[in-house]
Amino acid sequence: MTPIHIVGHAGCGKTTLIVDLVKKLVNKNIRVGTMKHSAHVHELDKPGKDSFRHRTAGAAPVTVITEELSAVYLPKAFGISPEKILETYYTNVDIVLIEGWISGPFQKIEIWRKIIGRPPLFKGIKLVKAIVVEEPIGNTDLRVFQRSEVDSIADFLLTLT
Fold first, then answer.
1. By CB distance 3.0 to 4.6 Å, which of 15, 56, 97, 101 could disulfide with 37?
2. pTM for the whole thing?
């Protein structure tokens, strides 16, 4: 299992790129997992739902199981980290695309859009292997992909595994 961060400023298209890459990789018979990392504190559950009420009453963990999906809510106090989640639940995949977690320890691909009005992140973070752009970025030693080159980006990701 190879985790790879897809990083970039808000509004750069990280989620859309990940969805496109997942489709391409799955079509190549690659087992793909994803993880969304948020630096913000916010509720994952729906207030008022049974699972929310169970959690706020003090139950931990709380699990929701349907015919097609299951979810387990674990408080951070249980020592849960992104690495622990990867070790526990992602052992049967070939690649994990992690949306965000800029400070994370794995190789990174940055998506950057000039229209956002903020400079690329790659100069200030480690392990960036490539940058995905819609417009010219100027001189860089990184591998540069156009956003439309999803097949090439997917192939490049496989070289990082």
1. 101
2. 0.88
